[in-house]
Write a structure and sequence with these properties.
heterodimer, A: mainly alpha, two-stranded antiparallel sheet, 5 helices, B: 349 residues, alpha+beta, 48% helix, 19% strand
Amino acid sequence: MFFRIDPDSAEPIFEQIAGCVRIAALAGDLAAGEKLPPARQLAESLNVNVHTVLRAYQDLRDEGLIELRRGRGATVTERVTGYRTLEKQLEAMVAEAGAQGISPRTLAALLRDTRS
Amino acid sequence: MSAARTPVPGDDPAVLERERRSRFRAFVLGVAAPALISLLGAVVLTLWMPRLPERVVRQWDFSGQPTSTMDPAMLWMLPALFTAIGLGIGLWHARAVTADGGYGSDARTAVAMAPAFTLLGWLVILGIAGSQLDRPAPAASVENPLLTMLVTPALALAVFFAGRAWLPKSTLPKAEPLTPVPLPRSDRQQLAWSARIGFPRLGMIGLALVPAAVFGTALVLGVGRGAGTELVVVAAAALIAVTGVFLVGVWRVTCDRSGLTVRHPLGWPSVRIPIADIDRVRVVRVQGISEYGGFGYRRASGGRTGVILRSGPALEVTRRNGTSFLVTLADAETAASVLESYRRELSGG
């Protein structure tokens, strides 16, 4: 799974890390039962504090995408299959937005507004 | 062995015919031949059982003198093990028909191993048993079946090479190594790629089941027949085999600013190549059996080592001292791009 974080971004780093996992789930790169990198190891790789990675993993656990168990690390749950279904719907939505001249940035803003 | 796929519009009839022939021959070599050899061997060994002494010689020293004996029931173990290994490896690879309807080098080697392994197991055991028919104890009167030990590997090799040649060969050209494209990155951005890789789950279960089945068979055959020592040896061997499968079957691969790390989840074994030691990064296609002689942590000629868990795409890292390390990855391209980004930055390339 690919991670890219930017300390200069306005988005908090833990959100960026969680976002990388969500993107991998949407792209079908994660399967149920798969293990995410151990928090300490990922923190070293990305040169961030281990608590930042743990915060990202806790958010992913709260939304049901992963399970956290002491000694067993972070494991992807069955919910990942729903993400794949969602990806197809998102592709259709992006295509429809494109057909109507709505930019991806505007579409993202609309989605954020809908969520809030 | 999977059935032939359903043709789709645009399929080349010649390729379909070739694919059908490939699958038929793989079935003959990978299933029918081992089954027939096992059936014949089992009939002969069953007929011979009443004519064997209470303890049969299983080991000879260099001068030809017997050094240890075993219960005759243990004679079933070796053919059972060899047949299971041969069938498992053969069946697993027989599915891999290439786009031109043939088999790649690995698949041909693996499928041809099925009848060769089965034949080897049975001939060795029938040779040992045959040399001890109608012999009363003590076992010292038994001669070393040296001829059997020399002839059977030769026969097995002949079957292997004939079988391999009989399987239709894929003529698809080997994919050229791919140089990864570095990922754009600002100074403060951090990139990392990480994945847990392992043998396919079915393969892991199959590999673990073989020693477990062997021990189970030994238990059934040996209990109550005074085969205590043999059972301990078989149990130890089975335990070592299962441990070995799990020790080399699961790894965590990390590519980041520090370089490449391939580590077992327990922390050992571990391979680490610092980014400063990396001279070249490529994506290559490997054939596990033909190029590395199998799967797991492997060594090959030319200073190449690797964690080879399947045939297919692999990340290849060449160190500054010229040696290279490979690890098979489904997404080798992204992993290679992360390493290449940091490597180029460090070398100013």
